[in-house]
Amino acid sequence: PLFDKLATDVSRWVRNAAFQHLGPLIATLSSDEITPKLLQYYASMATGKAQCGTGDNEMPTFCAYNFPAVVLTVGKENWKHLQQAYNELLKDIQWKVRRTLSFSIHEIALILGPELTQEDLVPALDMFLKDLDEVKVGVLQNLAKFLGVLEPSYRANYVPLLCNLEMESDNWRFRHLLAQQLGELFQLYDEGVIQNELYPIFMKLCRDPVAEVRNTAGRQLQAILDRLAELQVSWRDEFVEELQDLATDRLFQHRLMFAQMAEGLVEAESSFDSESFSKEILPQLLVLANDKVGSVRKRAGAALKLLSCKSAYSDHESIKSALATLGDDTDIEVLRMMGKDIDVGTTSCKLQGLPNGSEKDAEIRASLSTG
Fold first, then answer.
1. Dihedrals phi, psi of 339, to nearest 5 degrees
2. pLDDT tens-digit map of 49-83
3. 55: helix, coil or strand?
4. Are 139 and 146 in contact (CB under 8 A)?
5. Taking every pair of C-alpha atoms in the chain, what is the biggest distance, in angstroms?
6. Residue 74: how many CB atoms within 10 A of its CB?
7. DSSP class of residue 82?
8. Which pTM value belongs to this model?
9. Which of 161, 225, 255, 367 is most exposed, with the fewest beta carbons within 10 Å of its own?
10. Exposure pattern of 245-280 as b/e (b: 16+ CB <10 Å)?
């Protein structure tokens, strides 16, 4: 009764404020306290014209923002009372309304379950994927969570989408979002899809031209190795060999990628496999500790330092030797990583007693003037 009074108040501002807070209000109530009329009020916000006749372009935005909380409160058995409102919001001309829905579609899917999701939310997902980038980014950010709700046979329909994302050239952030979810995606699919689609996607993203994409993909390696071990795949050696190729690549960015992945494996305390690491990763890591590029040596050294703290490697002679060599490195950043106390402003040239840029310029000018 109180909301009825507020919703029909003579003041437009009061009416608007009442509807703006209707979603949070419903979310605080128990399912028994939510009346059909209250849901009708809420559903009427989707068109921008609440039941009291108030027109406000912000109404659909408030409705979309609170939709997951309302669905969670009323339960999937009452989805039929909200479905029409959801469909209205999907067609809203304001992209910010559709963007809000795209960021929450996975949450609603978790509430509704596989059957209703496949029937009512999959068409919405497909619409968002064809929408503006500002809208599309919402579903891509949580794509693995949404796919996890679907039945395996239905989930297979979205494998081509994953491949298209990897080939996305106009917006590298979409590739970055895919890289963030690779570990989850490997868990969702069977061996055939992993070998033929996800494994090649992972390796391509590890060689992506954008550093943020490469680094994010590399951080998924432990989860991927765990999944391959779970499936006991016969092609694991092939996968490892392709990883090892990064360590000898002519581009230093790819060698750096290998060192970063090695460091990530060492940091994964709970799932660290010392036997596999010693055989498959450590030999290449020791070579990278002597790389000609300082940033590669720095990252390899960081991984070796972490490794030396593990009991299985505390007396490893090759690691001790590599760390000792890095301790005498000529690169400032490598020395700092090794714990050396280097004054701020010290350059590699100054550290080696060589003339810096300004001193070299002065020498050249002096020689030219005397000549």
1. 95, 10
2. 655 545 567 889 999 999 999 999 999 999 999 99
3. strand
4. yes
5. 98
6. 21
7. T
8. 0.85
9. 367
10. ebbeeeeebbbbbbbbbbbbbbeeeeeebeeebeeb
Q: What is the pLDDT of residues 275-329, one digit of tens each?
A: 899 999 999 999 999 999 999 999 999 999 999 998 888 889 999 999 999 999 9
Q: What is the mean pLDDT of the chain?
A: 89
Tens digits of residue pLDDT in 218-261: 999 999 999 999 999 999 999 999 999 999 999 999 999 999 99
Cα 320 vs. chain centroid, distance in angstroms?
36
Length of the chain as a residue count:
371
Distance of alpha carbon 366 from alpha carbon 180, whole angstroms: 55
Confidence of residue 2 (pLDDT cuts 50, 70, 90): confident
Count CB-CB contacts under 10 A for residue 4. 14
Q: Which two tokens stand for residue 29?
A: 């109530």
- Model confidence band, residue 169 (pLDDT cutoffs 50, 70, 90): confident
Nearest C-alpha neighbor of 213 from the set 246, 248, 166, 170: 166
**CA 229 – CA 142 distance, rounded (Å):** 26
Contact 119, 155 (CB under 8 A): no
Alpha helices, DSSP H only, in 91-132?
A: 95-116, 122-129
Rounded Cα distance, 302 and 99, in Å? 41
CA-angle at 107, arms to 101 and 108, nearest 5°: 70
- Of 101, 94, 92, 4, the C-alpha closest to 51 is 4
351: CB partners within 8 A, 6+ apart: 330, 332, 335, 342
